[in-house]
Amino acid sequence: MLNLNVNKENFKSEVLESNKPVLLDFFASWCGPCKMLSPIIDEIAEEREDVKVVKLDIDEHPELAAQFGVMSVPSLFVIKGGEIANKALGVRPKQQILGLL
Q: Which CATH number is associated with domain 3-100?
């Protein structure tokens, strides 16, 4: 599904209340590994209609990063029914990310 940038205003509706599983990518614009992971996340967003893929910039929204205990980026979370179903830290191959879903 379309790759959205979420923020504190739309986080609840786009992530926690989503009727689809959400792949949530915590990133930072200065983060080299995040830039390496971004094309993979974008591919998944294009290929998987059954999953909502969203990105959240930790520098713009530190309160949301803190809420999830994000200490390093990239951090990936799978949210299902408003709850954390899975998570992974660092750059991962596409197949591993798909395995989280």
A: 3.40.30.10
| Residue 3 pLDDT level (bands cut at 50, 70, 90) | low
Q: State yes or no: is 11 an active-site residue.
A: no
pLDDT at 72 over 70: yes
Q: Could you say which of 22, 23, 31, 56 is catalytic?
A: 31
Query: Model-level pTM?
Result: 0.92
Q: Which of 1, 15, 34, 40 is catalytic?
A: 34
Q: What is the pLDDT of residue 8?
A: 86
Active site residue 34: yes
Gap between the Cα atoms of 36 and 62, Å rounded? 22
Q: Which residues contact 21 (CB under 8 A, 6 or more apart)?
A: 50, 51, 52, 78, 79, 80, 85, 101
